[in-house]
Amino acid sequence: MNRGDIYWVNLDPTQGAEIRKIRPCVVVSATPVNRARRTVIVVPLSTEAKAHPPIAIPVKCLGKEAVAVCDQIRAVDKARLMRLEGYLSSQDLEALDDGVKQVLSLD
After folding, report:
1. pLDDT surpassing 90 at residue 13
2. What is the pTM of this model?
3. Please, is 9 exposed, middle or buried when counting C-beta atoms within 10 Å of its C-beta (0-12, 13-18, 19+)?
4. What is the pLDDT of residues 26-71, one digit of tens each?
5. Coil, helix or strand for 56?
6. pLDDT score for 37
7. What span is annotated as the signal peptide, if there is one (predicted)?
8. What value does the mean pLDDT take over residues 65-93?
9. How would you label 63-102 residue by residue, b for 16+ Cβ within 10 Å and e otherwise?
10. What is the pLDDT at residue 52?
11. pLDDT for 100
12. Helix, strand and coil percent figures for the chain, each rounded to 5
């Protein structure tokens, strides 16, 4: 399980305005941490959301235009990960990193 991998993740059950359903998510936690822990940190992807940097970053996912919804970052148990679908390009991962940094005030 590597940083930048795209997995189908079952995000249900959710509550309120949390992004829901089974959807592709990008693993953003560090690969060594992913190997050591039972959880990973992911950013959900959406083909419905509109791009609004820095909160929602346009990326290419599985050959389609998608949006990484950075303000919905979350830790999920590995049991929620259903299937590896691919990986984010290094350019898109860098843009995603910038979005997460801004959402979390890490800059």
Report:
1. yes
2. 0.93
3. buried
4. 999 999 999 999 999 999 999 888 888 888 999 998 788 999 999 9
5. strand
6. 97
7. none
8. 96
9. eeebbbbbbbbbebeeebbeeeeebbeeebbebbbbbbeb
10. 83
11. 96
12. 25, 40, 35
In angstroms, rounded to a whole number, what is the distance separating the alpha carbons of residues 10 and 34?
18
Cα–Cα nearest to 7, from 78, 100, 97, 91: 78
CA quadruple 9, 40, 90, 20: dihedral sign = positive
Q: Which fold has domain 5-103?
A: SH3 type barrels. (2.30.30)
SS3 101: helix
Q: Using the structure block, give the residue that is written with the tokens 């346009």.
A: 58
Please state the domain extents for the chain.
Answer: 5-103
Cα separation, 4 vs 17, in Å, equals 25
Coil, helix or strand for 97?
Answer: helix
Q: For residue 67, what is the enclosing H or E element?
A: strand 64-69
Mean pLDDT of the chain: 94
